Amino acid sequence: MEPFEILTEEDITGWDRDKITEVFMEYKNGKVEFIKKAQVASMYNTFLIGVYLELKGIVGMAARGLILNAAKKGGLRAGKGIRGKYEREKGELTREKAILIARNMLEIWSRGFGWGNFKVNFGRKGVAVAIFDSFEADGYKRLREENAESGMCWMLFGYIWGMLEGLLNVKLEGEDKMCASKGDNYCYIEFNFIE
After folding, report:
1. How far apart are CA 172 and CA 78, in angstroms?
2. In sequence order, what DSSP letters do the residues of 93-132 get, joined into one string?
3. Which of 55, 69, 87, 100 could bridge 63 with an S-S bond, Cβ 3.0-4.6 Å?
């Protein structure tokens, strides 16, 4: 089966990192491609947080909004892209199927990309995401001794938000309730459906 078929048809939440990278990543000519489409790259988590902190020093807390918005747009493109391909090839994307795909995507980001250890709960009113070992929060803690005044998982928050909106075809309100960068034990984000 092709990677897109597996993403949309199988529950991969029990897979280990080796199986996820074997199925969804292709290594060729010095590049890593995800699902034979998007080039991905690893970087030190302190690099990304360093960019955030430099930007924050220039524009203040508007930096959070800039990064969050850009990440949300990227996640929305990804979610809508998956949704569109599914509907062109297989027909209507049901809520249950969209949730399976969202869980699979989060598992790939968690185990395959190393973004953190995600625990997700889809409910009637929204989606709750707990992130243990967030790479963004860890990057902040490595660069700074003091706790952050607000959560630093800007890319994770925005990208998950956009991906969920695109895949589920809904509007969400999002709030990062907890973040390890602020001294919390883990990061916790809530997304509530907007009627």
Report:
1. 16
2. --HHHHHHHHHHHHHIIIIIS-S-EEEEEE-SSEEEEEEE
3. 55
Q: What separation in angstroms does the CA of 185 have from each of 107, 114, 180?
A: 21, 18, 6
Q: What is the per-residue pLDDT across 58-88, written as a single tens digit (0 to 9) for each?
A: 999 999 999 999 999 999 999 999 999 999 9
Sequence letter at residue 152: M
- How far apart CA 110 and CA 120 sit, in angstroms, is 11
CB atoms < 10 A from the CB of 78, how many?
18
The CA distance from 174 to 158, in Å, is: 9
For residue 153, the model assigns a pLDDT of: 97
CA distances from 30 to 7, 40, 170 (A): 24, 11, 38
Q: What is the pTM of this model?
A: 0.94
Helical (H) or strand (E) element with 177: strand 172-178
Nearest to 149 by CA among 48, 52, 45: 52
> Which parts of 2-64 are beta strand (E)?
25-28, 31-34, 38-40
Tokens of 150: 């607000």
Q: Pick from 51, 52, 161, 65: which is nearest to 106 by CA?
A: 161
Q: Where do the structural domains in the chain lie, given as residue ranges? A: 45-193
